[in-house]
Design brief:
Helix content is 71%, strand content 2%. The chain is mainly α. Helix 1 packs across helix 12, helix 3 crosses helix 11 (264-274) and helix 7 crosses helix 9. It holds the Pfam family BPD_transp_1.
Length: 316
């Protein structure tokens, strides 16, 4: 009787870590990932800005395209033109109206949506609709709303005994445009502020109610410190977007009636493309850029700087 030998145990293979060698360092690999975006930004943002600065100091012949150095002549022509100052005044007025209305609507909507009530989810979805619409669609919609013949607001005014109300007249066209702009842009601020309000502890509101604090004191001492920084960011966004608004004004009023809604952006469009005064139009665009920087810096120092100073006093 033969006995089979037990099977020989196979030698265990030691697991070894294989070193993966690469000739590309992490820094180079990161630059390779960023390079397409950087090239796109250079082509679509940096180059047009620098080229407009170049044009603003050039005298350009619209027929031949020949350029010659003009120094600050184009800026002098733009600043000595009464139409430029009128457009600048309309731009400041329009930006102030849009900022005030958008901030009020956004903050009010965020405070309402923070509460728990039936139908809240539906209301959250409906508020996003104006923001999702294209500017052209919003302009066409509000053109019918503002129409003095068959518009919705004209019908309501007629029911109230006011005939012939034209919301796009010279005296009311800028606030009317600001309402449309705020109607479309305020939902972004509402969601922005709502995300911050949901992080406020409920215990603070309960303790404040026990201490007898009213609605205004609770908003001032509890809500406002949380939303101050997001509100400043939204103010900068809406102010810059309003100061450079063009498509809504073009589709809804085309700068009219007359020149009542002729903002500086619309003036740059007319000077550059219609009148083909390329140097003067580029100079006007840089004047607008300086205005935007001044407005956003004002918002920053108005809202963010007091917050920082209070934090430094607390630390000391």
């Amino acid at each position: 009787m033969t006995t089979e030998a037990p099977p020989r145990a196979l030698p265990r293979r030691e697991s070894r870590k294989v070193a993966v060698s690469s000739s590309i360092s992490p820094t180079k690999f990161g630059l390779m990932l960023v390079a397409p975006v950087a090239i796109l930004l250079l082509a679509t943002v940096v180059y047009p800005v620098l080229y407009s600065l170049y044009l603003s100091v050039q005298r350009v012949d619209p027929l031949t395209g020949a350029k010659s150095f003009a120094g600050l002549v184009n800026y002098s022509r733009a600043l000595s033109d009464k139409a430029t100052w009128w457009s600048l005044l309309i731009t400041v007025y329009y930006t102030a109206c849009v900022t005030l209305v958008s901030t009020g609507v956004a903050l009010g909507s965020a405070l309402i949506l923070r509460e728990r009530f039936r139908g809240r989810a539906v209301l959250v979805a409906l508020i996003a609709l104006p923001w999702s619409m294209s500017t052209y669609a919003a302009a066409v919609l509000w053109r019918y709303v503002y129409s003095p013949q068959y518009g919705l607001l004209a019908g309501l005014a007629e029911r109230l005994g006011m005939d012939g109300v034209d919301f796009l007249s010279k005296s009311t066209v800028v606030p009317a445009l600001a309402v449309v702009h705020a109607w479309q842009f305020a939902p972004l601020g509402a969601y922005f502020l709502l995300a911050t309000l949901q992080s406020v502890p409920e215990d603070q509101y309960r303790l404040a109610k026990i201490d007898g604090m009213g609605v205004w004191l609770r908003f001032r001492h509890i809500t406002m410190p949380y939303v101050r920084l997001p509100l400043a960011i939204f103010l900068v966004l809406v102010a810059g977007q309003a100061a450079t608004a063009f498509d809504l004004i073009y589709f809804l009023t085309s700068g009219g009636p007359g020149n009542a809604s002729r903002t500086l952006t619309f003036s740059v469009y007319e000077t550059f493309f219609q009148n083909q005064e390329f140097g003067k139009g580029a100079a006007q665009s840089w004047i607008l850029l300086i205005l935007i920087i001044a407005v956003t810096s004002f918002y920053y120092f108005l809202i963010v700087t007091p917050r920082r100073s209070r934090g430094e006093r607390k630390n000391t």
